[in-house]
Amino acid sequence: MALDTTSSALPVLVLTNDIVFPASQLTISVPRSLAPFLSRIVKNEEGKPALVAAVPAVNSSPILQIQDAKLSEWGCAARIVRFVRPTPLSPNSCILTLAGVTRIQLETPLPSPPSLLKLPLHPVQYDITPAKGSHAIDEHAAEAFRTSAIRLLDRLNADNKSKGGQTTGVDWRRLRSIVEDSDAERTPWVADILMAVISLIPWEDRLQMLSTQAPSARIHLATSLFAKHASIIEVSQKINTAVDESLSKQQKEFYLRQQLQAIQKELANLNRSKGVKSISPGGDIDRARTKTGNGSNTSGQGDASNEFDEEGDEAEYLADIRAKLEAMIPGSEERKTGVKEYRRLKRIPAGSMEHGVIRTYLDWLTQLPWPRINEELTDQSLKLMQDPSFLSKAREQLDADHFGLDTIKRRLIEHLAVIRLKALNQAEIERRVSISADAHNEAPAKSTEALSLNSVSNTPSTDSTLPEKLEETKNPQKRRQIRTKGPILLLVGPPGCGKTSIASSLAKALGRPFHRISLGGVRDEAEIRGHRRTYVASGPGAIITAMSKVQRPDPVILLDEIDKVGHASYQGDPASALLEVLDPEQNVAFKDHYINVPFDLGQVIFIATANTLDTISEPLLDRCEVIRLSGYTYDEKVHIAQRFLLPKQLEANGLPIERLTITDDAYLHIASYYTREAGVRSLERAIGSVARWKAVEWSNSGDSERKGDRVKYHSVVDVDDLESILGVPRWDPKEREREERKGLVYGLVVSGHGEGGVLPVESVMTSGTGKLRLTGSLGDVIRESGEIALSWVKANAYTLGITISPSDDPLKHPHPIDIHLHLPSGAVKKDGPSAGVAYVCAFVSLLTGLTVPKYIAMTGETTLRGRVTAVGGIKEKVLGAHREGIKKVILPRSNRKDVEHDVPAEIIKQMEFVYATRVEDALDAAFGPGAFHSGQRMQVESRL
Ligand SMILES: Nc1ncnc2c1ncn2[C@@H]1O[C@H](COP(=O)(O)OP(=O)(O)OP(=O)(O)O)[C@@H](O)[C@H]1O
Fold first, then answer.
1. What is the number of structural domains in the chain?
2. Structural domain span for residue 676
3. Where are stretches of biased composition, namely Basic and acidic residues (predicted)?
4. Which is catalytic among the residues 72, 148, 834, 845?
């Protein structure tokens, strides 16, 4: 387009990388070679304006040299408003500030490449008349221009803000207000200003703008360019925000994962230092992560690198859990719950806390031995029980592991017999179901044949409830369950008498896993029944943990020390949680708070142990069948030591069997001088010490032989060797020497551990007012029996020859006295009525001056009328008395059967038993027959 207005010649300044627009200012550097020429223009000697034609290069680039520039046809006449030339020695370029005046068009192209030494004068055309008429801008176009310009400026402003306002140094808001205030006439001028300022508009677009002379065309061009660039900025801003958001999400996730890892590490350290296994089923998780089902990996054989892969492969894990859930019976509650949790797990992002909680829950849930779809129809224990010699083999197993304990072994065998019969019945029912199902499937018409087939089976059943049983057995959940419904066996006895070990040999005999749950000190119900999942770090209780460990529905579980379970408190009542476990009616649907799905414990054999029955709650006791173990005699201990404890200790200490022989006397010596217990635990420990001692001797002798010394090793240990091996005997035999003195007798007791022993009953008299003082941590019952005994003695004082007149009170005549009765071991609490006979004898001895021989001990409750009634713990007491060297025991007549049934024959042979019906019988036995006159006694009795 040509300008048909004014024409003149202007020096042409080539701009390689800038454009000057009319009404805009631009500061550039120019080569110093041009300085003289430029200063001439600026000095304006000829009175001309200091104008140059600033013509941009078409092929602009930051590194473009002037001589290489291809000039645009269009440029801008610009006034030099500032010219700074360098000092003569400075290598710098000149600084030139130009203010655009108007568009110019080169009339002809420049003839040669621009010179670096001077600006060539070149004719240009320009137009400085304001736009009018056909050039006028219509209002719509101006509005469109303003809108697009404002949109672009707003975007640039927002962009600038998001970058901290430091990027361009242009005040976009001010420009915006200029645009807003501009009327239609001024818009072409505003468009030029914006074009000069907005550097992001590409060079070609700006050149096009420069070369557009007509204002309306310029406005249209500017409108479309601004709209285009506003859209470009919007889109790029959107992309940037999206990228930023995803980046910040990633950063957030990364940060949280780092934190999670740190927490897990700390927890693992904590658990390691406490020696506690993980709350979740520990290494079993790893096991859970290995493939199952048709899987190629099985537990323990998996890829070793997976074992340590903390993150685990989520997809593999989910597939594994899914396979386990699919193996559960369809429609079963455990499967429904598992599937629900599995779906939740998939929805929740991995690494979140909730994800971990669900994962741990699913680990527990899927590891429990639920009834499975593809369970094999015969299992190991059923096969074992089908063996006709099952019971005799079981007995052999019990005998192989334990000496004596006949009653217990007999009872256990009875228990096994019941379980076996139930299992065989169950197997028979299953067999019938499968036959009838086959017949039904093959052809309904052949059902009669199937029935006749049944009737010729080896074990025809006369059970009238068979149809229901058959129906019940069709339910897959009810199949394969050998229920052990029946009383729970409770083994009661002193420590170390084999309760725990016989339970484990029962499990061995049954071919089932054995698990021991120690209940000693359990105060919190949650320890048995688990914490609800709402608790932080919640987990299942001891029962479900045991089931998860053994991985079978039918283990033998030993509830050890059931007498030491805590009682009801704010933490719940663990004893009542146990009730549910032990009650065969309830435990088929045992609900752990954590798992929260009923679990069938019907196939589990529970055996409980306790040292005493006193602290076991009545309802709990009611569900148990009590079997008592009451400790061993010395003979039994020697046998146990020889046959069981020594081989065990030799193996434990690595000494060959032929390298240690302990003589019977040595065993007896250890049992009586180094241990004083009903069981054999301390004895076992002492034998262990002997074995270790001899192991050292044996290896020393080997060393000496190698060195050529002749140190002989003696494999036999006799009584004389014991002191050097075990030290001074812990129980000094002299200590056992009891005294025979006035007011002192020996009673028989059973300690809280169920251990029997002898307890002195001491009494003295002091001057006083006829009062009785009882000391020695005595409970109410034992105090009352002291008072009863004294009342009886007072009532019979005359008959017994204590007073000279029937009306005299022996505590007041001839002198007023007080009696102080004490039971030693004052720190140990004592209660019970069984010291009555001993009290009477002590009072009579004190008041008459007669003494009771020290080899006599007694037990029995007395009534005010002088009857001697039965007491408990006879076997323990007699064995305790035997250990203490007592020769004669005075017992209530009604306890005779206990002695005859429970006390080993060899003990009966070694001791004398006197059975008393009345207190007088006991007095005769203690003080000697005829010590008191029987005739008078009859009188007293008739008076009563
Ligand atoms: N009759 C026995 N024959 C062989 N070994 C026995 C016999 N009785 C006990 N033992 C051994 O004595 C040790 C202690 O037995 P165990 O731990 O079963 O005692 P416990 O009655 O359960 O004691 P606690 O009440 O303290 O739990 C075991 O090594 C066990 O094998």
1. 6
2. 634-733
3. 466-475
4. 834
In DSSP terms, 559 is beta-bridged to 517, 608
Residue 23: Cβ-neighbour burial (10 angstroms; 0-12, 13-18, 19+): middle
HEC sequence for 209-262: HHCCCCHHHHHHHHHHHHHHHHHHHHHHHHHHHHHHHHHHHHHHHHHHHHHHHH
Helix or strand or coil: residue 199?
A: coil
- pLDDT number for residue 378: 47
Residue 624 is assigned to a ligand binding site:
no
Nearest CA to ligand 1 atom 25: 495
CA of 502 to the centre of ligand 1 (A): 8
Co-location of 522 and 396 in the same domain: yes
Please, are residues 760 and 737 in contact by the beta-carbon 8 Å criterion?
A: no
Q: State whether 435 and 547 are in the same domain.
A: yes
494 is in an annotated binding site: yes
Q: How far is it, in rounded angstroms, from Cα 845 to Cα 743?
A: 5
pLDDT band of residue 857 (cuts 50, 70, 90) is very high
Is 829 among the domain residues? yes
Instruction: Note every long-range contact of 59-66, with CB atoms under 8 Å and residues 24 or more positions apart, other chains counting.
Output: 60/16, 60/17, 60/203, 61/16, 61/17, 62/17, 64/16, 64/17, 65/16, 66/14, 66/16, 66/31, 66/113, 66/114, 66/116
- Is residue 720 assigned to a domain? yes
Long-range contacts of the stretch 548-553 (C-beta < 8 A, 24+): 548/281, 548/284, 548/364, 548/367, 548/368, 549/515, 550/369, 550/513, 550/515, 551/367, 551/369, 551/513, 552/369, 552/512, 552/513, 553/369, 553/371, 553/481, 553/600, 553/603, 553/604
User: Which residue owns the Cα nearest ligand 1 atom 3?
Assistant: 402
- The secondary structure of 52-78, three-state, reads EEEEEECCCCCCCCHHHCCECCEEEEE
Q: Are residues 645 and 744 in the same domain?
A: no
Span 144-171, average pLDDT: 78
Strands 94-106 and 556-560: unpaired
Nearest alpha carbon to residue 154 among 237, 97, 53: 237
User: What is the distance between the alpha carbons of residues 332 and 344, in angstroms, rounded to a whole number?
Assistant: 19
Q: Tell whether 559 and 427 lie within a shared domain.
A: yes
54 and 24 within one domain = yes
Assess if residue 907 is contained within a domain: yes
- Residues 879, 850 contacting (CB under 8 angstroms): no
Contact residues for 943 (Cβ-Cβ < 8 A; gap 6+): none
Tokens coding 609: 């142990």
163 is catalytic: no
Pocket of ligand 1 (CB under 6 A): 402-405, 495-501, 560, 609, 611, 640, 644, 679-681, 684
How much of the chain is helix, strand and coil, in % rounded to 5?
50, 15, 35
Per-residue tokens: 334? 């455990």
Of the pLDDT bands very low, low, confident and very high (cuts 50, 70, 90), residue 892 is: very high
For residue 626, give the H/E element and its range. strand 624-628
812 annotated active-site:
no
Does 872 show up as a binding residue in the annotation?
no
The residue whose CA has the least distance to atom 4 of ligand 1 is 402
Q: Which of 748, 745, 746, 753 is nearest to 872 (CA)?
A: 748
CATH number, domain at 678? 1.10.8.60
pLDDT at 299: 39
User: Do the domain assignments include residue 539?
Assistant: yes
Query: Which tokens belong to 12?
Result: 């042409």
Report the chain's C-alpha Rg in angstroms: 54
C-alpha 561/C-alpha 333 separation (Å) is 33
- The reply to whether 436 and 300 lie within a common domain is no
Separation CA 226–CA 146 (nearest Å): 10
State the distance from the centre of ligand 1 to the C-alpha of 881, rounded, in angstroms. 22
Lowest mean pLDDT among 604-613, 631-640, 863-872: 631-640
Best of 408, 561, 644, 682 to mutate for ligand 1, by most ligand atoms within 8 A of CB? 644
